[in-house]
User: What shape does this take?
Amino acid sequence: MRVEDQIISVARTPGAAATILVVEDEPMLRLAVSKSLRKNGFTVMEAADGFAALDRVRDRSQDIDLILMDLMISGSSVSEVAAEARRFRPGMKLILTSAYDREMAPTSIDAINATAFIRKPFHLHELTRLLVRTLAL
Assistant: This one.
């Protein structure tokens, strides 16, 4: 089955839609990503910074299947959000995104134990495919 078919299958299977927490401090990007994910059948929560992400994780960790987070967020750090998410829900999947290459990122992606990484700018269909693959792990 092609990844595109999996996307359609996931989006149209009742109850199969995952909940994604999108943590992005750039409002236009956060809105575009969230809107695209909703169109593909995902439930989306949004956070504009690390503090809001921590609030969502603490209040709704059992509802969140995956966190998509900018590596350079303001407020609480990415590592704090990741640690708290995994404290509430061990095995929480985390996809980091950055305009930096993985090797050039100022924060060690491996130290955060991210499930995956996608470099900005990305195409929304690439992100959706990555989400489907990551959720299947």
The chain is about 45% helix and 20% strand. Residues 95 and 110 are 12 Å apart (CA to CA). The beta strands are 19-23, 43-47, 66-70, 93-98, 116-119.
